[in-house]
UniProtKB/TrEMBL annotation, chain A:
This is Methyltransferase, CheR family protein. It comes from Fictibacillus macauensis ZFHKF-1. Keywords: Methyltransferase, Transferase. Residues 8-260 form the CheR-type methyltransferase domain. InterPro entries: Bact_Chemotaxis_MeTrfase, CheR_C, CheR_MeTrfase, CheR_N, SAM-dependent_MTases_sf. GO terms for molecular function: S-adenosylmethionine-dependent methyltransferase activity.
From TrEMBL, chain B:
It is a multi-pass membrane protein. The keyword Cell membrane applies. Signal peptide: none annotated. The modification 4-aspartylphosphate is found at D831. It is found in: Cell membrane. This is Circadian input-output histidine kinase CikA.
């Protein structure tokens, strides 16, 4: 996997460690995006990728590009932000959400949901569909944020490739969708376009979990498969941000491989669905 | 080329030389002439004067000799002196005559001479002869005295002076002549010199003239050539020479050379121009159009078309460009090898020139009119010995040699270009393909990469979590053990639960059955008790027995209802279709219900129309049960007035099955009625108008729902007309079905009917071939399985409109058969509700086949039925679409499921 320049992640020399530190410092100073507290292994792998593509041999040479090659910072930022997502990802999460969280939400007069790290918006649309089917659409506002504005632009279009739609359909059905999935999109030869009415109560905004603070109080915060890229220290910080941003009895939905167990905030929550990693803020 | 009166350089030079030579000859002749004249004169002087002098001297000498002789003779008397005298006296006259003749040109001298002669004669006669004669006569003394006479001496002296004068005159004449000769000589010298000068001048003049005339034309030619070269090789100019000599010939020859150079230049330029124009063209059409228009323009052709071979393996030539074509219809678009002249030309690989174009061959048209093409040329474009393209040109004029040469020239290189362009296009296409593939691959690999990274990340985290978990292993183990235990318990409970729910219906059925047995005993016994007790029991007991009986009866009804309902729900209830005699029905009803109505003081009427057929096919028991339910209800909820049954032959507005005969049973009452909003409600199990009603009138509310289920099973419908406080009318429509209900009747049927109508409507609105989606679906094969022909028709038309191949099956069996026969199926649309073999079974059967594990199957389900949809997915449908179908939605779904194949 790695035959040039950087040694295997497990065996980074102290020199290389320093180079990476400096590189991330430069990225932070140049762009304001702070990856210093991201999981080092993940960062290293992505840097290795980029180095292979750029045929660079040392991280320091990459740093030079960072300063002197226009557009390189953006490349690095795109490399570092992972945008893998799909609609109704982990269908069971949505199924459980529908059956357990939704009844609780129905009691509220108005609902605010925050999708942190929404990437290209697949999960946001999933949530919107779910809420529509449950009749909560009208009284809900979904705040969808990501640090990458490029992906946000994509998300706003609500346009997904046809190839992925089969998986999405399967997920939707497994997630207990009550209609036909096709009710929500029209397709041309390449893309499926989601009904613009779904967007009505969705606000897309740029927000960086690492550097930005809370901006509202929410009933539900969904942040799935984002924190895995953060060091536990950073995870803790973000978790406190979520905790602050949740109202009492509010729900926090995490990815099914993520957990609050080792977070400082764990005590502030009760496990609402252990399997699907849905937590509820205690009184 | 040169005119008749050409005057060549050689002629010029020769003429020049000739002139000079002639001049020389003339001058030599003249000189010679002069010289000979002078010679003559000189000779004349020499001979004539010399003779004159000598003769004069001779005569003088002879005079002297005569004098001497005479003297001598006289003195000596010697005969010798007399002899010399006589000799001189005899000869001097001859000399005198000779001299005289010599002086014929000089009369004055002749006169002088005659004077001399006279003097001499006089001497001879007066002096000489007489003296001699004296001597002879021996008169010596007289003779000597004669001699001594002064006169005679004086005479001789006079003659001698005369001679002297004569001679001096002659000498002066001779001198004169010599002087004349001298002057002539001098003149001759002058003449010679002047002649020389004239000849030299003439020669130089001629030389200059000739050389100038030659050099000037040469200069003209040089100037023309220089002008051409200095003009950047402009060969359009020509050399013009006025003279008619070799230079003119040279100029003509040069002009011919220039002509040929210009032609070649034109050829080269035109070729380069055409070749240059089509350089860098990326597509065959661009290339063809540029090429043909270039060639046609250069050759003054009015019409042209270029056909390029589809590929080297193909026999088809496709038109790639045309010139002056009247819009679309210039020439054919395609021809195959050997087809017509063009095709022939492609085979023979040699150009074809048609000079006598048939009248109807082609009309070259412009905005103003059209004209007959005069010449048509068809040229094959070869590449590596094969015909790669064919060029056809038609002109109103004729094709010149240059045109042909040009065509030949450009076609030579064109083959290579066509090949390279087609190669390039192929490369571009492949490149695009490979780029697309690469992009796709890249995207996939990126996706994979990110996914794998994510997986790695997750596994890493898991690893970390595991480590931490290990630290808390004891606690975790303990908890997990507890959890396991709890889980096992839960599982057990869940199993029990599912088991118990599974037993529910069985239990209910059994229970009712078990209940009925003892209940029957109770009923029979209580009835017996009530009837028989009158004789030996108290009235009170009798009343008790009656209450027990009627309660038991109610209970039995209830149990029967529950049993039926659970059977219906479990799908176990089957209708038995048989002949039912309708004529007996009114009496039957009357028999059964008249007294019940009377008990409540109600009027009970049964009426049947005459057109009701005497025999219908249905389940008699169930019909009676339904009627009983409806009538019981009617009677139950009516306080006063009428309960009536009206039987007619009438079909409902919405038929769920096709039947020859329909009956309508209208059960009306004048009871409390049902409020509008409760109309739907009352058919649900255990429901009545409202709670109060139930309390007042009793009953379980099962009757109507059971009736409704039965009616559905019989293929009929139930309608309600009711107004609160005024009474209700239930209309039961039943079909006569000799074959029984073929479709499992259920709620959805109604909706299906509506859907078909809706679908057809959508179909009509659909514009043909909308938004070019044709390409996406075209060539895809879809199998529609639906028992409703109208549905199939509507779908088929819509899908065929999109260019799809549509195969249809009326039921599951057909669908499976067709699957075996069909290859390359892209998608299956599957109706769920079908006779013979329904959608679920069919889907299951399809998925059981190895080849069709992944084929997209889209189930068409009824909107209301959530369970149906779950079942669809369970059996393996890929997706479902709710009826009534919206065509755009259906297309979207199909795009999604066809997209990845």
């Amino acid at each position: 996997m790695n035959d040039q320049g950087l040694s295997q992640e497990d065996y980074l020399t102290p020199m290389e460690e320093m180079e990476i530190d400096l590189f991330l410092e430069a990225v932070y100073r140049l762009s304001g995006f702070d990856f210093r507290k991201y999981m080092r292994s993940s960062i290293v792998r992505r840097l290795q990728n980029r180095m292979r593509m750029e045929r660079a041999t040392t991280i320091s040479s990459m740093q030079e590009k960072l300063f002197h090659e226009s557009g390189f910072v953006e490349k690095i930022l795109n490399d570092f932000s992972i945008n893998v997502t799909e609609m109704f990802r982990d269908p069971d999460f949505f199924k459980v959400f529908r059956h357990t969280v939704v009844p609780e939400l129905k009691k509220l007069a108005s609902i605010r949901i925050w999708h942190a790290g929404c990437a290209t918006g697949e999960e946001v649309y999933s949530m919107a569909i779910l809420l529509k089917e449950e009749g909560l659409m009208e009284k809900t506002t979904i705040y969808a944020t990501d640090m990458n504005e490029e992906v946000l632009e994509k998300a706003k279009k609500g346009m997904f490739s046809l190839q992925k739609m089969q998986t999405y359909t399967k997920n939707y059905l497994q997630a207990g969708g009550s209609e036909a999935f096709s009710e929500y999109y029209t397709a041309d030869n390449h893309f499926a376009y989601f009904e613009p009415s779904l967007l009505k109560n969705i606000i897309f905004a740029q927000h960086n979990l690492v550097t930005d603070s809370s901006f509202n109080e929410f009933h539900v915060i969904i942040c799935r498969n984002v924190l895995i890229y953060f060091t536990s220290e950073l995870q803790n910080e973000v978790q406190s941000l979520f905790y602050e941003s949740l109202c009492t009895d509010g729900f926090l939905g995490l990815g099914n491989k993520e957990s609050l167990r080792f977070s400082q905030c764990a005590t502030g929550y009760e496990e609402f669905s252990t399997l699907q990693k849905i937590y509820r803020k205690k009184h | 080329m040169i005119g008749k009166n050409r005057f060549g350089i050689s002629a010029k030079i020769i003429t020049g030389y000739a002139v000079i030579i002639v001049c020389l000859v003339i001058s030599i002749f003249v000189v010679n002439n002069q010289l000979s004249t002078m010679q003559k004169e000189r000779n004349f002087i020499i001979h004539h004067d010399l003779q004159v002098h000598s003769l004069t001297n001779e005569i003088e000498k002879k005079l002297l000799e005569m004098e001497n002789g005479q003297r001598g003779y006289v003195l000596t008397g010697s005969e010798r002196f007399l002899k010399s005298y006589n000799a001189a006296e005899n000869s001097w006259r001859d000399d005198f005559n000779q001299l005289y003749s010599l002086l014929a040109d000089n009369p004055s001298q002749q006169n002088n001479l005659i004077n001399i002669k006279k003097a001499m004669m006089s001497w001879v006669n007066e002096t000489g002869e007489p003296i001699i004669a004296l001597k002879k006569n021996n008169k010596n003394a007289a003779a000597v005295k004669g001699l001594q006479q002064e006169n005679s001496i004086q005479n001789v002296e006079n003659i001698r002076s005369q001679f002297e004068q004569f001679r001096s005159t002659e000498i002066s004449l001779t001198e004169k002549r010599a002087a004349h000769l001298d002057s002539r000589n001098k003149n001759l010298t002058y003449g010679l010199i002047s002649l020389l000068v004239v000849v030299i001048a003439l020669s130089i003049g001629l030389a200059l003239f000739i050389s100038r005339s030659i050099v000037n034309t040469v200069k003209e030619v040089i100037a023309s050539i220089k002008a051409m070269t200095s003009n950047g090789g402009d060969v359009s100019k020509r050399i013009f020479v006025k003279t008619k000599d070799e230079i003119r010939e040279l100029a003509h020859a040069t002009n011919d050379l220039l002509d040929s150079v210009e032609k070649r230049d034109w050829l080269q330029k035109s070729t380069n121009g055409i070749v240059g124009q089509y350089q860098g063209k990326a597509t065959m059409n661009e290339l063809g159009t540029t090429f043909i228009s270039g060639v046609a323009r250069s050759t003054d052709a009015s019409y042209g078309a270029i056909y390029v071979r589809e590929s080297m393996d193909s026999k088809k030539f496709i038109k790639k460009g045309q010139f002056a074509g009247t819009a679309a219809d210039v020439g054919r678009d395609v021809f195959t090898i050997g087809e017509g002249l063009v095709g022939q030309c492609a085979i023979e690989k040699s150009p074809l020139l048609i000079e006598n174009v048939p009248n109807d061959y082609i009309l070259v048209s412009s905005a103003l009119g059209e004209a007959q093409a005069k010449n048509v040329i068809i040229v094959p474009v070869l590449f590596e010995g094969d015909t790669i393209a064919v060029l056809e040109l038609a002109t109103l004029q004729t094709f010149t040699e240059e045109h042909k040469a040009l065509i030949e020239n450009v076609t030579k290189t064109f083959g290579l270009t066509v090949d390279s362009i087609s190669g390039r296009m192929e490369i571009v296409r492949l490149l695009k393909e490979s780029q697309a593939l690469t992009e796709e691959l890249q995207a996939q690999s990126e996706e994979l990469q990110t996914q794998s990274e994510e997986l790695q990340m997750q596994s890493e985290e898991l690893r970390m979590i595991n480590e931490q978990l290990e630290q808390r292993s004891l606690e975790a183990e303990g908890k997990s053990r507890e959890l396991l235990q709890a889980k096992n318990e839960l599982e057990e409970q869940a199993q029990e639960l599912s088991l118990s729910s599974k037993y529910k219906s069985e239990f209910l059925a059994n229970m009712s059955h078990e209940l009925r047995t003892p209940l029957n005993s109770i009923l029979i016994l209580s009835e017996m008790l009530a009837e028989n007790a009158a004789s030996h029991q108290l009235a009170e007991d009798e009343e008790f027995a009656r209450v027990i009986h009627s309660s038991g009866q109610d209970l039995l009804h209830l149990i029967n209802d529950i049993l039926d309902l659970s059977k219906v729900e479990a799908g176990k209830l089957e209708m038995l279709f048989n002949e039912v005699n309708m004529s007996e029905l009114p009496q039957q009803l009357e028999r059964n219900f008249a007294h019940v109505a009377q008990q409540k003081g109600l009027d009970f009427r049964v009426a049947m129309e005459n057109d009701v057929p005497p025999l219908i096919y249905t389940d008699e028991t169930r019909v009676q049960q339904i009627l009983k339910n409806l009538l019981s209800n009617a009677i139950k909820f009516t306080e006063r007035g009428t309960v009536a049954v009206h039987i007619s032959s009438q079909a409902p507005k919405e038929k769920r099955v096709e039947a020859n005969h329909w009956l309508c049973f209208a059960v009306s009452d004048t009871g409390i009625g049902i409020p509008k909003e409760k109309h739907d409600h009352i058919f649900e199990a255990f429901q009545q108008g409202d709670g109060a009603t139930a309390r007042k009138f009793g009953g379980t509310g099962l009757g109507l729902s059971i009736s409704l289920e039965f009616i559905k099973l019989l293929g009929g419908t139930l309608e309600l007309e009711s107004e609160e406080g005024k009474g209700s009318t239930f209309y039961m429509y039943l079909p006569s079905l000799p074959e029984g209900v073929t479709t499992l009747a259920s709620v959805e049927e109604e909706t299906v009917l509506q859907e078909v109508a809706a679908t057809v409507e959508v179909e009509e609105k659909l514009p043909p071939n909308e938004q070019g989606a044709l390409g996406f679906f075209s060539g895809k094969t879809v199998l529609i399985t639906d028992d409703d022909q109208r549905n199939i028709f509507a779908l088929k038309t819509a899908l065929q409109n999109e260019g799809m191949q549509v195969i249809t099956a009326a039921n599951g069996h057909e669908c499976l058969t067709l699957l075996e026969e069909t290859e390359n199926l892209d998608l299956i649309l599957m109706d769920i509700m079908m006779p013979v073999m329904d959608g679920y079974e069919t889907i299951q059967a399809i998925r059981a086949q190895e080849a069709y594990q992944d084929i997209p199957i889209i189930a068409l389900t009824a909107k209301a039925m959530k369970n149906d949809r779950e079942k669809c997915l369970e059996v393996g449908a890929s997706d479902y679409v709710s009826k009534p179908l919206k065509i755009e939605q259906l297309f979207s779904v199909m795009r999604v499921w066809i997209s990845n194949q």
